[in-house]
Structure formats: C-alpha cells, structure tokens
Specification:
58% helix
Length: 78
C-alpha cells in the first residue's frame, strides 16, 4: 500500500492530497505493527503508547469484558 499511495507517485495529480493523507496513515500503522511493544500496547489498550488509565479505552464494553476474561483464563492455563 505504501508504494501505491506514495505521494511522489501522485505528485501533480488530483489525488495528491489524498495520497499524502493515506501515506501518513499507512506509515503510522506500520510503525505500530512493526514494533512489538507498541503493538502489544495497542492490542491491550487501543493506544500504541499505552492507556494512561491502564486499561483499554476503545471498543465495545462487552468485547472488552470478553477479551479480558478470555485472556485471563488463557493466562492461568499456561
């Protein structure tokens, strides 16, 4: 996707501004997914730097509860 939306590829076209925004988003996602610590923080809290509250602050409360219960029970088994 980075190659497809690189701003240089769309320079001077009507998609130049869109390409810049998409490339920034793609770059940010890559920086999170390629760093194990940031990825773990994002998976646990929805924030690559970790939640200031120490828990996930995004998503459905029911999904959070299920994930937390499931994660805790799987941790106890290992």
């Amino acid at each position: 996707m980075a190659k497809e939306w690189h701003p240089d590829k769309h320079s001077g076209s009507d998609k130049e501004a869109e390409a810049e925004e998409k490339f920034k988003t793609i770059s940010e996602a890559y920086s999170i997914l390629s760093d194990p610590d940031k990825r773990q923080n994002y998976d646990l809290s929805g924030d690559p730097n970790g939640s200031p509250f120490g828990f996930r602050t995004t998503g459905s409360p029911f999904d959070m509860l299920f994930d937390d219960l499931f994660r805790q029970s799987s941790l106890r088994r290992s």
